[in-house]
Amino acid sequence: MVGQSKETHMVPDGVRQKFENAGRYELIVVAARRAHDLQTGSKPLIDDWAQHKWSVVALKEIEAGLIPVTYPHGYTEPKDEEEEQAQEEQQTDENNSGTLPA
Fold first, then answer.
1. CB 30 within 8 A of CB 69
2. How many Å apart are CA 30 and CA 62, to the nearest integer?
């Protein structure tokens, strides 16, 4: 067949069930937003992401329960300890640099 991919990805039943109340449209919107975020630099939350397209990674993250139905509202990217420490140091430096002794 011309123009069709040999491999097709169907939405797993587990993903559909998570969005049963929200609907298919919301599932598509959430998956598209997550795929876009992944493409623009967000860290994948699953281990076997390298072999998949970003849209498939997003669906796998949703299926694993790592991405909420309400994504991106109220969602914050998980941080590792080094990132948290660097952010805390930056905030401390900003707080200390604002006032100079008289």
1. yes
2. 9
Specify the number of domains making up the chain: 1
Note whether 27 and 19 are within 8 A (CB).
yes
For residue 22 the two structure tokens come to 């929200």
Domain that holds residue 31: 13-92
- 16-73 residue pLDDT tens: 777 777 777 888 888 899 999 999 988 999 998 999 999 999 988 988 888 887 777 6
> Residue 25 has what pLDDT?
82
pTM for the structure as a whole: 0.60
Q: Is 29 helix (H, G, I), strand (E, B) or coil?
A: helix
DSSP characters over 54-65:
HHHHHHHHHHTT
Amino acid type, 101: P
